Amino acid sequence: MMGYGQGNQTTGGIHFRLRARALVVEDKKTLNKVAYVNLDIALSTLLIKNKVVAELEKTLPGVYGHENLLITATHTHSGPGGYSWYTVYDITTWGWHEENVNTIVSGICNAVLTAHKTKVSASLQIHQGTLEAPLTNINRSPAAYNNNPASERAKYKYDVEKQTITLKASAEDGSPIAALNWFPVHGTSMNNWNNLISGDNKGYAMYLFERHFNGNSTLPGFGKFVAMFSNANEGDVTPNTRGAFCFDGTPCEMVHSTCNGTTQACRSYGPGSNVDIYGFESAKIIGEQQFVKALEQFNKANEALEGGVNFVHTYKDMSKIVVTPKFTGLSQNVTTCSGAIGDSFAAGTIDGPGDFDFVQGSNSTKTNEFWNAITHFLIPPGPEDEKCQYPKPILLAGGRTQEPTPWTPSILPLQMIKIGHLYIIAVPSEFTTMAGRRLKETIREVLLANGAPSNLIVTISGLSNEYSQYTATPEEYVIQRYEGASTLFGPHQLDAYRQEYSELAAALQTGKDVAPGPTPVDYTDKLFCIQPGVILDDGPIGTVLTQPLASYKRGQQVYVQFQSANPRNNHRTQDTFLSVDLQQADGSWKVVFVDGHWETKFHWARKTSILLGESVATITWDIPEWAVPGTYRITHYGDKKGFLEKVTPFTGVTNTFKVL
Q1: What span, in angstroms and rounded, lies between the C-alpha atoms of 257 and 281?
Q2: 314-349 burial string, b = 16+ CB within 10 Å, else e?
Q3: 33-52 pLDDT, tens per residue?
Q4: Alpha-carbon gap, residue 447 to 504, rounded angstroms
Q5: Phi and psi dihedrals of 510, rounded to 5?
Q6: What pLDDT shows up at residue 612?
Q7: Phi-psi region at 116: left, alpha or beta (left = phi > 0; alpha = psi -120 to 50)
Q8: Is the peptide bond before 80 cis (omega within 30 degrees of 0)?
């Protein structure tokens, strides 16, 4: 799985489905159009976007390219991995996974094509507000945030962004079409003990919003109304609102996030109960709070977006940006650094601690000499790297190797989109709270200076188009907690982004052409995967191993098991591995719940060894209060691989049971 960087966190089923959702906006006058894709996944990559652009070109030549297609990730940490060109982001998933790439690309293309083909004349309204209560996000690195100037911190009430922005799309007759929300919070309510695919808190917010308008009877992913919840400057923002504690209940040491000197026992906890081991309850609470606020904004939205549609895009080698004093406040130009990761990266965060003896807030390689000796032997940082990155103790000089591919990126996509007086900054990074505030303030000033309306709205879409870890302020960088250690291009990275996006913003507002910049190298042919594929599925596949009880009450859980086969044989995109079926008056069966519902869970596990190929699927259904009383059954769908690698579908069906 992708998010926490732990090789032993492998997928074992589905909590609820991940989805790609798209909103296409076309200017009636100029015919300029943009496609905004909200991807229910850890991060967006150019490997994915390149393939999406190529596929869309086959169906809609010349319509969507890198310039007017924005792909942003919700940042759930409970999704699949293996879809980046860069080694650091694939190594804990044992390489790239082509089947995951194909499924993601297919989902995005389907979303964009559906949005394009169903365009109608519409109006857009927007609402700005704050989500202050109930508590939905807190800062997970206050020691770093507090190193920002006191005068700057005094301008803000909180050490995290509480701003929430909701865009409302309505047809000419007033019927709702879509909602798009921005609010910064990590997708880490589900912790690194979880092994089920899950959309986490933002996924649940989207699920609730779509169910609100599409109705309970519409299966997830098939309704007309689409809700998108995007991230913003969430780099140092956690949904685990109870804070970080040691296992004995005492608070963690704040600067290094340790308990008795180590990080492993320091964990953050969400608003769920103490028995919420994996984070399901916390994800539900944080997701519902985002949904409730966004729905309130949606219903109140009456500020029309006016001013046309436009976009700008370029590529920049962020390891070689010369930054002027205008943006650094220094007396001379400075240059960004070759990409490098610091020791504190390996310490992890309070949302998911790392391994070994690394700690956050480390400014010396001597705190973990053994692992630094190994990584420096593999990829030795040069004296110029150490000087440029100071005070970061370099654990991995990712920009200094090309084997098997570069370990970290250098050439990154920078993009801005204008929809009326809404300006969206698509950043390929996780900006901390204050880093995002500085970027937005800079861009606002540039836009106003170039004729933008005074009521302009500027927002960040984080984790967009490619991934390059974090962007901290120079002051936060000095502290070298996780976010600073993950700021690849050195202490002046934020100022470099402020400089380069300022040029984009001016061009966007004035209509000036923007140079495309250096084309990123496509490393797909050099990617590797050392995880074996499916060898064989065996046994009486489809047989029910555990039948349901005769009857249940609403609020109870149905638990059944089947002899199964490896889900990797077929991801069953826009389909399901399970269904809860309700018997109709004429004796026929209607599917009323699938694996895209929050109320179901699909667990898969090997029954014996890989070679024998036997496995078990456990399906649970938490019966909601709104379930219709009647006669039900549960069906399991899948695909099995036999000898000679032939894959064939199978089905298993339980006995019937009553919901009273």
Answers
A1: 24
A2: bbbebbebebeeebbeeeeebebbbbbbbbbbbbbb
A3: 999 999 999 999 999 999 99
A4: 10
A5: -95, -10
A6: 78
A7: alpha
A8: no
